[in-house]
Design a protein that fits this description.
- The chain is mostly helical.
- 64% of the residues lie in helices and 0% in strands.
- The protein has helices at 3-20, 26-35, 38-54, 60-70, 78-84.
- Helix 3 (38-54) runs antiparallel to helix 4 (60-70).
- The termini are far apart.
- 10% of the residues are buried.
């Protein structure tokens, strides 16, 4: 096992605990965020979004945590965003800036 694999297994173990707990440990969340890899960020944000969606009134702390993680995620290139939205690059013409 190398360092990256150990780190990912550690994060996965903590995320499993967070997934099971109705009120996740702040310590676990902080540890996940401190160790998070780019490959696992998407899974983590999905977990947080599920937690918030399950609550009728999500806590401001959880919403802020989600915002902090979302803004740290890398942006997709514009061409990939258009592709996911169903645009074909050959058919897509950008409007000129005026």
């Amino acid at each position: 096992m190398d360092g990256l694999e150990a780190r990912e297994r550690y994060i996965q173990m903590l995320m499993d605990h967070v997934r099971r707990d109705r009120f996740p440990s702040i310590d676990h969340l902080k540890r996940i965020e401190a160790s998070l890899t780019p490959d696992m960020a998407g899974e983590y944000i999905e977990l947080l979004l599920e937690k918030a969606a399950d609550d009728q009134f999500p806590s401001p702390t959880m919403l802020k945590r989600i915002e902090n993680v979302v803004y740290q995620l890398p942006q997709r290139p514009a061409s990939r965003r258009r592709e996911l939205a169903g645009f074909d690059d050959e058919e897509y013409e950008e409007e000129p800036d005026e």
